[in-house]
Every structure is written in structure tokens, then in C-alpha cells.
Amino acid sequence: MINERKIREPQQKRSIEKKDKILKAGYKLICKNGYYKTTTSEIATEAGVSIGCLYSYFKDKHTIFLDILKKYQAQFDKLRDEFMNKMLLFKSPEECFREFMLILIDIHDKSVDFQREVRTLYYYDPEVAALSDDQRQKIQDAALYSIKLYKEYIDIDDYEAAAIVTSLIINSVVDDVSLYKSSIDRNRILDETVKALCRYLKMKPINHLNKY
Questions:
Q1: Which domains does the chain possess?
Q2: Cα 129 to the chain's mean position, in Å?
Q3: Left, alpha or beta for 132 (phi > 0: left; psi -120 to 50: alpha)?
Q4: Which stretches are labeled DNA-binding (predicted)?
């Protein structure tokens, strides 16, 4: 049976490129047709490889999807780490919150159709749910870090709970702005979101913070 074949991890450049072509083809077709309407045969054809070649790298369509999701999240991790490393350079918490939302929106904008498939599978696939929950936790960690960084300018008692509320607000706005069309410019939505976050955190009016 196909699923009993040994899956190999490519070591040579040519093999790595073949596996990458399969992932790119899978991403393209899943975004276009949806996860359930995409087959491994179609992915192999799109990638220009035999079905046997595909199954030498992936057990099934599900593992292809998981690898695509992991690659997507690795890109997010890189951008999040870069953002957190430069957090001290922001002039204010408002600028910090806005920049973080812009980063998330940019990532979502580049993968809107894929994000919709992830949302659909979240409720039916434990592995997709686990990966998505891990990413959500990373956003909460970034929110907690920013709250602690500016703690002398805010008035809250429970930092961890506040980080969850903050990340929920940010995620909700980012998802809405990226996945759905709005009748007004997204910058206006971001402006109001930043104001709402500052009001929620009872943030003191600050024109400039010297955090060096």
C-alpha cells in the first residue's frame, strides 16, 4: 500500500527542489480549489513529478498540508522575532501595536485563501488545531512582552490575562481586515484599534518614550 512506503527526507539539492515543487503545487491548488477538492494526483501533475515521486516524500495530502502550514508559520516566527528584537526602538506603545498588526496583516494578505482552509480544518483536524494554537500562543507571548515592556505607562493588574485580551483584539481585527472587504480604509480601522487597546490598558498619554 502507498501509505506503507518509507518516506524519505531529501538530502541532495535536486531532491530538495522536487519536494519544494510539490509543496508549492499543493499550496497553489489548495488555495484555488480548497483542501477537500484537491487530490495528490493533481498536486503531482501540477508539480511535474510522478505520483510515486510525490509519495516518496509525503505520506498523503494531509502531510503535504501540514508541511505547507509549518513553512508558513516559520515565516511568521521569523518576522515576529525580528519585530520583538526591535521593540525597544519604537517611540510609543501605539507605534508598537500598530506595527505588529501591520506585520500580521501583511502575512495574511499574502495567504488569504490558505488561511481560510486552515480555519476550516481547525475544527476537524487536531494537528492543524495544535499548530494554529501554537501560533496563537506566540502572538500572546509577543503581546505579554510588549505589555511588560511598557508596564510603567499602563494600569492593569493581570498582565497575562491582559495579554490574552490584547492578542484577541489584534487577531480579530487582523483577520477581519485581511479576510473580508471593508467599506472604509483599513488604516482607519487600525487607528481605532490602537486607541481601543490604549484605553483598555489605561495607558497614560505619551508623546515619546525614551527606552534606550
A1: 2-59 (1.10.10.60), 69-200 (1.10.357.10)
A2: 13
A3: alpha
A4: 39-58
What 3-state DSSP class applies to 92? coil
DSSP H helices in the chain: 13-33, 40-47, 51-57, 61-85, 93-109, 112-122, 126-149, 159-179, 186-200
Residue 211 predicted with pLDDT over 80: no
Q: Provide CB contacts within 8 A for 9, sequence distance 6+.
A: none
Burial class (CB in 10 A: 0-12, 13-18, 19+), 108: middle
Contacts of 70 (CB under 8 A, 6+ apart): 131
C-alpha cell at 89: 526602538
This prediction has a pTM of 0.85
The C-alpha angle 109, 111, 112, rounded to 5 degrees, equals 70
